[in-house]
């Protein structure tokens, strides 16, 4: 057998093992069009981390959080549903703390010091039909699912559907 063929097979085997370790560490379920698992480094960070809302790692021990987190700044979840669950819990905490309108919640979530908050509020308002100064019913599962889906669209792009957001809210 050709030495190059053996060498290529050995490299492919090691690379595959590395990806298995990566998947175990991150909970990644990204697949290529051919169906095999691949790392999609071109996807937004929130998608790679199963963290649709880009929740920062502040030491909270979230349900569904990966045991080994390879991202120094953001939480990595086992699935996007757990990311949406965490977002639902955070928005409900905001609500109980007096942040009740869409504008108040998003201003707290995405402060002006780090984001274009006005555009964020405008986009989520347009995508949900909830006015910026309208109270968000965070205990209505459909409303909360729609808000979280719109926020994930702002944070990570259009990678998720309402069913995934709703499943996360149901876990909250």
Describe the structure.
This protein is mostly helical. It has one domain. It has seven helices and no strands. Helix 3 crosses helix 7. It is globular and about 40 Å long. 34% of the residues are buried. The N terminus is likely disordered.
Short description:
The protein is an all-alpha fold and 172 residues long. It is 53% helix and 0% strand.
Topology record:
Elements: H1 3-26, H2 45-48, H3 80-96, H4 102-109, H5 117-128, H6 141-156, H7 162-171
Features:
single chain, 172 residues, mainly alpha, 53% helix, disordered N terminus
Q: What is the number of independent domains?
A: 1
Largest sheet: none
State the secondary-structure class: mainly alpha
Number of strands: 0
Rg result: 19 Å
Gross morphology is globular
Helical proportion? 40-55%
Q: Figure out the total of helices.
A: 7
What is the rounded distance between the termini? 56 Å
